[in-house]
Design goal:
By secondary structure, the chain is α/β, with parallel strands linked by helices. The protein is built from 7 helices and 10 strands. Strands 1, 2, 3, 4, 5, 6, 7, 8, 9 and 10 form a 10-stranded mixed β-sheet that branches. The radius of gyration is 19 Å and the shape is globular.
Length: 253
């Protein structure tokens, strides 16, 4: 079954067996109209269930790499300088994802969209962004919408990072343009993972550690983002506060 066949099948199932009929430039508009009429969330992730059986290695991040030409650390709160550093370091580069073999490219549009997000840890990820993407695991995709007619979908990848003694889950969105197999980096988000050592082989973690690498199961990162999104939504309803509780997970050590 091709990806398009799978997409049509999934949408058809969501619509109770109705056919999704769209044509050329009206495709995204038709999708959004049908989503609205049938109470379907446009940005629902169509998950690859096989990802739940995978784990991802934790990548060590070195924020000291984010320096200017004189060797001085760039202030992460200075969006303009950070943007220029990102464009110089990543624009035009390509990274191959080990999990699915896709090639991800960096362009100005994605870099400038990503750098709008703030937060120290969020921005420290830029130091080893290429390694995080290379290490990522494909977990599914979102359909394109009417606002971005040239984008067929956005592939979603999970990765994991370590800064100091803190572990983070990282979620990447990759734009897949119509008629193009590989993708373009759009942005990333992070979530805290409260790591708890355990000698027992459960909780979905990979019990085998190679060269001391920590491996975290994809379902745990997925759940952490779900918890974060839920807490943000609930808190926003109360006081527009983006506070969330870190996800408590285990690894073998």
């Amino acid at each position: 079954m091709t990806l398009d066949d799978f997409t049509d099948k999934a949408v058809k199932e969501l619509m109770g067996g109705k056919e999704l009929k769209v044509e050329n430039d009206l495709e995204n508009k038709a999708k959004n109209n049908i989503f609205a009429e049938n109470n379907i969330v446009p940005h629902r992730i169509f998950e690859d269930q096989s990802a739940d059986n995978k784990s991802v290695k934790v990548v060590s991040i070195n924020p000291d790499k984010i320096i200017d030409d004189s060797g001085n650390a760039i202030d992460l709160n200075n969006t303009s300088k950070l943007r220029n550093w990102l464009l110089e370091k990543y624009r035009g580069r390509e990274v191959k994802v080990q999990d699915d073999g896709k090639t991800i490219s960096f362009f100005r549009s994605g870099i400038e969209a990503s750098v709008k997000k703030r937060g120290e840890a969020q921005r420290q990820m830029y130091a080893d962004l290429d390694s995080l993407i290379e290490n990522g695991v494909y977990i599914g995709y979102e359909l394109g919408d009417a606002k971005h007619k040239n984008i067929d979908k956005q592939n979603i990848y999970y990765s994991a990072a370590k800064i100091g003694d803190k572990i983070y889950g990282v979620r990447f969105k990759i734009d897949i343009f119509k008629g193009v197999e590989n993708g373009q980096y759009k942005d990333h988000k992070i979530v805290d993972l409260e790591i708890e050592k355990s000698p027992l082989p459960y909780a979905g973690f990979d019990p085998y550690r190679q060269s001391g690498d920590i491996k975290i199961a994809i379902p745990n990162i997925k759940q952490a983002f779900s918890d974060k999104d839920t807490n943000i939504s609930d808190k926003n309803k109360e006081n527009n506060n983006n506070f969330f509780e870190p996800r408590n997970v285990r690894f073998f050590g």
